[in-house]
Write a structure and sequence with these properties.
The complex is a heterodimer of chains A (280) and B (265). With 280 residues, chain A is an alpha/beta fold. Chain B is mainly alpha-helical. The chains are: A alpha/beta (280), B mainly alpha (265). Chain B: It is a multi-pass membrane protein.
Chain lengths: 280, 265
Amino acid sequence: METPLIELKNITFKYSSEETKNALSNVSLNIYPGEWVALIGHNGSGKSTLAKTINGLIMPNEGEIFVKGEKVTEKTLWDVRKMIGMVFQNPDNQFVGSTVEDDVAFGLENQGVPREDMVNRVKDALEKVRMSDFAVKEPARLSGGQKQRVAIAGVIALRPDVIILDEATSMLDPQGRQEVIETIRKIKEDSNLTVISITHDIDEAAHANRVLVMREGEIIQEGTPATIFSRGEELIELGLDVPFPEKLKAALNERGIDVPATYLTEEGMVDWLWTSGLNK
Amino acid sequence: MMNKLILGRYIPGDSFVHNLDPRSKLVASFYFIGIIFLCNNFLSFGVMFAFTLFAIFLSKISLKFFIKGVKPLIWLILFTVILQVLFSQGGEVYFKWGIFTISEFGVQNGAYIFIRFVLIIFMSTLLTLTTPPLSLADAIEYLLRPLKVVKFPAHEISLMLSIALRFVPTLMDETEKIMNAQRARGVDFGEGNLMQKMKAIVPLLIPLFVSSFNRAEDLAIAMEARGYQGGDGRTKYRVLHWQGKDTMVVITFALLTALLVFVRS
């Protein structure tokens, strides 16, 4: 087995000592290099809290986190943050710079990257997210999807090992969402990035190698998207959506048509549908 | 509302004044305001006036914009001028009624003050019309840097300034949105007497404040996640270039000062 890039050991976290419920309770998790992991779960299930513990924005009450074998502590915090980039939910509230290129450069400035190097890396990162034409535009003139792509550029300019998308597509329209996921997918392919995406969006989760389902601060299920999505009814009970083929499957089952229980992608569903007619 | 306000707006362009270093422009504007008080006769004001018009000509921006810049302040200017005219004494008296006197000196002083005001507004409008707010923030940071010796937080001030500037349009949009949302719920803005008007502002102000707090928190977390640890050890993406023309501006101002000292009485 590979050595994990990120190791979480029995993480427990409470926002304040008065609260009776743990935001995270006894979470253990390994993430391997090059993986795309999706964290799903209803609101308040602890997904975002988990993401924030990974790069030390939140220190867990109990348990340990290792990133590349290094324990996350007050001392190693900033080194860990260099390895992990985060894109947050609200595109407006994470835009620090006054123009697109300033925003992309912000992280590099913080690391003290020399200016000549910085100029190249900013250009490069903007090209990767296809925002080069907007380099000198102000955030007020960009759409939500464009702002999120700039946020991604700001993260990849830092050349992290891991990128965490903390509901990065939840405030976007379907088109913007598609653009952002597509951008991430391409960058991941090019540079063997590890992606942790926290999401309500089932299509985004379908891109993952592994899906983790969280409920009340615990990871209750883990598996490939296919195995997780085939538990259609259970997901709905957890307050999550199921992919369209699963909905179709449920509707067909209701009408007495037997559809195979295994998870089918849209193409798989189409294939099954047109071949099933031939069997009759 | 903000569209009418010319003060603090930037008009993109490519002219001699546009391409100057923001530091030289900022310092020159302040210096200009300083030396305008050297003027004490019509000849010296004439020199300054000609200089200002020449600067405006170099910026390739229509004079209309500058006149628009004066408009919101015209009542204040006229009020001051009228006070000067009515209450200054000395020289030949043209008119006298009770405590009001219109005298030679009064009229002269009034005219001086009028020109002074207009020139100061023209010059500061020229600065803001030709310099993007961001460059101004950069210039302010640079000029404040020597104050670090006395522990003045120059980096923090300039960071706050640039974040504030970046959030102005975002907050304006949000204000508009909240206003419309409250209107949809039946709040009348700008109706009724003063008390009612002030009360109507509350459902606008409180959500705006609360959302600003949330924004600040999100922004702080996002900044930290991107490795922001304060001003030390940071490099800068934006750099200011001092060019030959900036030195030229400095020399021009030195000559202008010399000329002023020569022509003033």
